[in-house]
C-alpha cells in the first residue's frame, strides 16, 4: 500500500486489509511481517518487523499504520517465517531482549517470540484473552478497587475461570480505548510480572491506583499522594535498569491527575514514593528510614516504582495515584477495623479521579500521549512521532 498515492478516504480500508493479511499469516502458522518504507527518512528509510498474534494489538496496529500511510509511507504486510512453538528448542534463545542490535531502528519493541510468550502468560495470569485489553490499563493491589470498577462498569468482562493470580476486568469500547483493571496483588515481583507482559500490548497509559503508608506529619488517612519521583528499593529491576537511572511519571499524565484532584478539592501531596520489597520494613527501620529521610519521601508502598520503571523501560506513559491507608511512623498502623472503614470511603473517589483523567486523555490525545521523555535513540517506529 502506497500512502503517497492513496486518497485520504481510502486509507482506513487499506489499513484494515493490511492488518487482515497479518492475521491471516498468523492463523496459518507463520509470524507476520510488516515492511515500512518512509521516503522522508534519510537514516531509516526502510524498517521491517515481525509479529506474533497481531489480533491482540489490532487496534494499535491500525492506528499506527494509518498515521504512516497518511504521511506518505509505503507499507507491505504478509508472512515472515514459520512460528516457533513454545516447546521448540530455539524458542527460549529467541526470547532474549538484549539480542537485538541496539544501534538499529526497529519497527516494534519486541520480537515475535517474546510477544507470543507474553500474550500467553497474560491470558494465564489474568484469566482473560489478550484481545480483551484496552488502551488504558489500571493496576491495583486491592479487591475493593475491583468492586468499585464493577459498580461503575457492571458489564465489564472478567476472568473466565476462578483462582487466577492477577485477575483482570475490561470496560470495552468500540474503538478499544476503554479501561482495563488488573488486581496484581501485593509486591514488586507481581508488578514486574504484570507490566513485563502488558508492555507487548503497547497501551497508551499505565496507572497505579493503590494504597500507601503516609510518612509525613501532616498527612491524614484518606489523603492522596501523586508521585513525582520514586526511591527504588524494590530490587526486581536493578540488573536491567540501574537505580542511578532517573525514573519519573509522565508529566502530562500527572498534570491531568493534578487537575482532577483540584477539581474535587481532594487533600493530596506531591512527592517521592518509597517502594520496597520488604512488607515489614518497619521491623528493621534504620536503613530504610535513612533512605526515606535523605530522599524526602512522603509515602511508602510495594509496587509503584516497579510499574514506573517498567513503563520507562518499555516506553509506556505512566503515573501513580495512591491513597494513604496508614501512617506506620506515627502510631497509626493499618488495622483491620479501621481499614474496612477507610476502604469503603475512599474506593469510589480514587477510581473516579483516575477514570476522569483517562477520559480526558481519550478525548485530547486519541493517538496517545506525548512521550518524548521516555523515548530512546533507537526508538521503535511504532509509537513514535
Task: Kindly describe this structure.
There is one protein chain. With 385 residues, the protein is an alpha/beta fold. The chain folds into 2 domains: 3-116, amp nucleosidase, domain 1 (2-Layer Sandwich), CATH 3.30.1730; 130-374, 3-Layer(aba) Sandwich (Rossmann fold), CATH 3.40.50. 33% of the residues lie in helices and 21% in strands. It contains 9 helices and 11 strands. It has helices spanning 11-27, 58-70, 112-126, 143-152, 188-198, 251-263, 286-295, 304-313, 336-364; strands spanning 30-37, 46-51, 74-82, 136-140, 168-171, 179-183, 205-214, 224-233, 268-276, 297-301, 318-326. Strands 7-10-9-8-11 form a 5-stranded mixed barrel, surrounded by 4 helices. Strands 2-1-3 form a 3-stranded antiparallel β-sheet. Strand 8, helix 6 (251-263) and strand 9 form a beta-alpha-beta unit. Helix 1 crosses helix 2 (58-70) and helix 3 crosses helix 5. The radius of gyration is 22 Å and the shape is globular. The mean pLDDT is 89.
Amino acid at each position: 500500500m502506497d500512502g503517497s498515492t492513496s486518497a485520504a478516504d481510502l486509507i482506513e480500508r487499506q489499513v484494515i486489509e493490511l492488518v487482515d493479511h497479518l492475521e491471516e499469516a498468523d492463523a496459518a502458522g507463520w509470524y507476520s511481517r510488516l515492511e515500512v518504507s518512509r521516503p522522508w527518512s534519510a537514516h531509516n528509510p526502510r524498517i521491517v518487523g515481525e509479529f506474533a498474534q497481531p489480533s491482540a494489538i489490532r487496534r494499535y496496529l491500525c492506528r499506527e499504520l494509518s498515521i504512516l500511510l497518511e504521511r506518505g509511507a509505503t507499507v507491505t504486510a504478509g508472512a515472515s517465517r514459520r512460528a516457533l512453538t513454545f516447546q521448540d528448542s530455539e524458542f527460549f534463545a529467541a526470547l532474549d531482549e538484549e539480542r537485538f542490535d541496539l544501534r538499529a531502528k526497529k519497527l516494534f519493541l519486541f520480537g515475535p517470540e517474546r510477544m507470543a510468550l507474553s500474550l500467553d502468560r497474560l491470558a494465564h495470569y489474568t484469566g482473560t484473552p489478550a484481545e480483551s485489553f484496552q488502551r488504558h490499563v489500571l493496576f491495583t493491589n486491592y479487591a475493593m478497587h475491583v468492586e468499585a470498577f464493577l459498580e461503575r462498569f457492571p458489564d465489564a468482562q472478567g476472568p473466565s475461570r476462578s483462582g487466577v493470580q492477577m485477575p483482570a476486568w475490561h470496560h470495552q469500547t468500540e474503538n478499544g480505548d476503554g479501561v482495563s483493571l488488573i488486581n496484581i496483588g501485593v509486591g514488586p515481583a507481581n508488578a514486574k510480572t504484570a507490566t513485563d507482559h502488558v508492555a507487548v500490548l503497547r497501551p497508551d497509559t499505565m496507572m497505579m491506583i493503590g494504597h500507601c503508608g503516609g510518612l509525613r506529619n501532616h498527612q491524614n488517612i484518606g489523603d492522596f499522594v501523586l508521585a513525582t519521583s520514586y526511591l527504588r528499593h524494590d530490587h526486581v529491576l536493578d540488573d536491567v535498569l540501574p537505580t542511578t537511572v532517573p525514573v519519573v511519571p509522565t508529566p502530562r499524565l500527572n498534570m491531568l491527575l493534578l487537575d482532577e484532584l483540584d477539581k474535587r478539592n481532594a487533600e493530596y501531596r506531591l512527592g517521592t514514593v518509597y517502594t520496597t520489597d520488604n512488607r515489614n520494613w518497619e521491623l528493621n527501620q534504620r536503613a530504610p528510614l535513612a533512605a526515606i529521610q535523605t530522599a524526602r519521601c512522603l509515602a511508602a508502598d510495594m509496587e509503584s516504582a516497579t510499574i514506573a520503571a517498567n513503563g520507562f523501560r518499555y516506553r509506556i506513559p505512566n503515573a501513580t495515584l495512591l491513597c494513604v491507608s496508614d501512617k506506620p511512623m506515627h502510631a497509626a498502623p493499618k488495622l483491620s477495623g479501621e481499614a474496612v472503614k477507610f476502604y469503603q470511603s475512599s474506593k469510589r473517589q480514587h477510581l473516579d479521579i483516575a477514570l476522569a483523567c483517562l477520559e480526558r486523555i481519550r478525548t485530547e490525545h486519541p493517538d496517545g500521549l506525548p512521550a518524548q521523555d521516555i523515548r530512546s535513540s533507537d526508538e521503535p517506529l511504532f509509537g513514535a512521532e
